[in-house]
Write a structure and sequence with these properties.
The chain contains eight helices and four strands; from the N terminus they run βαβαββαααααα. It is of the alpha+beta class and 219 residues long. Glutathione binds next to α1.
């Protein structure tokens, strides 16, 4: 029985997991979490009462948290693209960069998007300003790092790039990466050219009208 992925194609954390699945051509069944799919939503809520996606059911286990799902794929569905280096000391760099993108790019990006969905009187101006400041600092740090690297860590495509792709993709929509940060911008373009991520972006294209801040006419 193939793995079941509870996900939606437009979700950034789901794209983070779709990338490695596509990289290694791993078969899976998409259990699409979308309005009207009540049966799938009920299964998802039973599997993970916190109701965050993605969730993977595979090898008799329920896996949550995108990074852990990718760790599971590396262990149980290895393929030609090795997303976490075998040497645990080398893998530390990959995990550091994975945490960087989740905590300091994805999280502030989600804060800005989430705030835009609130009623005007419930908006958190201070929190959004903090999120924008964090993104500025993250972009600056990333730009300096990417002057020396093709991919986020160890110069081969890894878990860290799976985290980078959707986080930078959406973060640039809500808080554009300054033109001066040419290395960070070039890295984002490189990620968009990677076939696995290009496919995830294409599959999510029909849902762009749902983007609460208005999807820009690019990418
Ligand atoms: N830490 C989780 C975050 C997952 C997450 O925030 N997923 C979003 C979609 S991108 C979600 O499920 N949102 C639904 C909600 O907040 O109710 C992970 O790494 O998988």
């Amino acid at each position: 029985m193939s793995a079941k992925l509870y996900a939606h194609p437009f979700s950034s954390y789901c794209q983070k997991v779709l990338i490695p699945l596509y990289e290694n051509d791993t078969p899976f069944e998409l259990r699409m979490l979308a309005p009207g799919n009540d049966q799938v939503a009920a299964e998802h809520a039973t599997l993970w009462p916190l109701k965050r996606m993605p969730v993977l059911v595979d090898e008799g286990r329920t896996l949550v948290e995108a990074s852990i799902i990718i760790e599971h794929l590396v262990l149980h569905h290895p393929g030609p693209v090795r997303l976490i280096p075998e040497d645990p000391r080398v893998a530390l760099d990959v995990r550091i960069m994975d945490r960087f993108f989740d905590n300091y790019v994805m999280t502030p990006m989600q804060k800005i998007v989430g705030d835009s969905l609130r009623a005007a009187e419930q908006r958190d101006r201070h929190g959004v300003a903090e999120a924008r400041g964090l993104l500025d600092t993250a972009y600056r740090w990333l730009d300096e790092r990417m002057a020396r690297h093709k991919w986020a860590a160890n110069d081969s495509f890894s878990l860290a790039d799976c985290a980078a792709a959707p986080s930078l993709f959406y973060a640039d929509w809500v808080h554009p990466i300054d033109e001066g940060f040419s290395n960070a911008r070039a890295y984002r373009r490189r990620l968009l050219e990677r076939p696995s991520f290009a496919r995830a972006v294409d599959e999510a294209r029909p849902y762009r009208p749902l983007f609460p801040l208005g999807a820009p006419d690019r990418d």
